[in-house]
């Protein structure tokens, strides 16, 4: 056949609850934009969040967007994806507008890729910080914290209280969901929990996060404790530390910088990370902040 072109008719998309579709559709959608999520990662996110997908007339999923409530007045937004075939036709904006209606008056946090940045600016989000996605096959590191302890399920209330002090909102429901699939380490001073870190299966291997500590030094102690025994395994950690001891340890441990995203908020600024008070040194996930 000689070379020729034709224009296919466009089609309509309808929105539906993200909980209602087969996880394989979601997995295909995230693979299509080269995200590492496994079906089990989507299932975990669907168990703690809400959102919807856009489907065509025969049930194919072309778009997704989710939000994750933390207490009554805060939420994060994530898993905003439009299939490359239908990008730049207004789908992302339509999905985001639906999510914003569901979130109501909550203050909002999200982590923007370059492709999504201008969309979020136009919806009232303001940049707060760069997130450094560090990952790779772990090399042996010297554990730097003799005092690091393992935290069991019955220690979760103290973890949630510490997390709220650092994050600025109640993430106890999320932490209760992460705990059964996570290794959890903690640091105590005067009997009081002052730092915690989690590691769980994610994407190509595992992710270390959240990490909350009162100083970068203590964050390093927690992270090296969770890197212990991971030699040769693929590990990821997302931090807002632009440099310093944590980034140096990650680099030495085989987790160099891979990519960056921008944390943006609407309604309130992101809590600062300052030595002496609880701060977030690693994200739970891009979608969960
Ligand atoms: C970001 C993404 C969801 C946008 O979806 P979309 O359906 O193309 O979005 P829309 O067509 O509604 O476009 C929204 C705005 O972003 C702009 N935009 C879309 N793609 C862009 C790109 N690659 N770079 C810069 N701007 C872009 C559009 O011009 C549009 O602006 P306008 O409304 O002022 O004209 C989509 O590109 C995507 O899935 N990317 C890969 C995954 C990703 O990065 N997700 C975001 C996670 S934070």
Automatic annotation (TrEMBL):
InterPro entries: Acyl/Acetyltrans_Enzymes, Acyl_CoA_acyltransferase, GNAT_dom, YitH/HolE_GNAT. Residues 42-125 form the N-acetyltransferase domain. The keyword Nucleotidyltransferase does not apply. Keywords: Transferase. Residues 159-271 form the YitH/HolE acetyltransferase (GNAT) domain. One of its GO terms (molecular function) is acyltransferase activity, transferring groups other than amino-acyl groups. The keyword Chloroplast does not apply. It comes from the Bacteria. This is GNAT family N-acetyltransferase. It comes from Methylobacterium terricola.
């Amino acid at each position: 056949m000689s070379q020729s072109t034709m224009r296919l008719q466009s089609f309509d998309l309808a929105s539906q609850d993200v909980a209602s579709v087969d996880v394989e559709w979601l997995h295909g959608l995230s693979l299509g934009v080269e995200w590492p999520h496994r079906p089990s990662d989507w299932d975990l996110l669907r168990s703690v969040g809400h959102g919807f997908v856009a489907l065509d007339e025969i049930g194919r999923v072309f778009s997704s967007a989710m939000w994750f409530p933390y207490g009554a007045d805060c939420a994060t937004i994530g898993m905003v994806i439009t299939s490359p075939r239908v990008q730049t036709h207004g789908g992302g904006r339509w999905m985001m507008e639906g999510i914003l209606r569901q979130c109501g008056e909550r203050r909002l946090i999200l982590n923007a890729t370059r492709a999504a940045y201008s969309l979020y600016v136009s919806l009232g989000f303001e940049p707060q910080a760069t997130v450094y996605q560090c990952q790779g096959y772990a090399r042996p590191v010297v554990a730097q914290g003799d005092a690091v302890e393992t935290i069991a399920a019955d220690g979760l209330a103290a973890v949630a209280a510490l997390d709220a002090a650092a994050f600025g909102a109640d993430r106890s429901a999320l932490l209760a969901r992460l705990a059964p699939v996570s290794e959890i380490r903690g640091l105590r001073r005067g009997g009081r929990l002052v730092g915690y870190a989690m590691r769980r299966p994610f994407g190509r291997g595992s992710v270390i996060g959240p990490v909350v500590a009162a100083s970068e030094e203590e964050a390093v102690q927690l992270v090296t404790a969770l890197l212990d025994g991971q030699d040769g395994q693929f590990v990821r950690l997302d931090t807002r530390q632009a440099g310093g001891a944590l980034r140096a340890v990650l680099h030495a441990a085989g987790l160099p910088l891979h990519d960056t995203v921008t944390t943006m908020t609407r309604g309130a600024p992101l809590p600062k990370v300052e030595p002496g008070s609880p701060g977030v040194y690693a994200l739970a996930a891009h979608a969960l902040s």
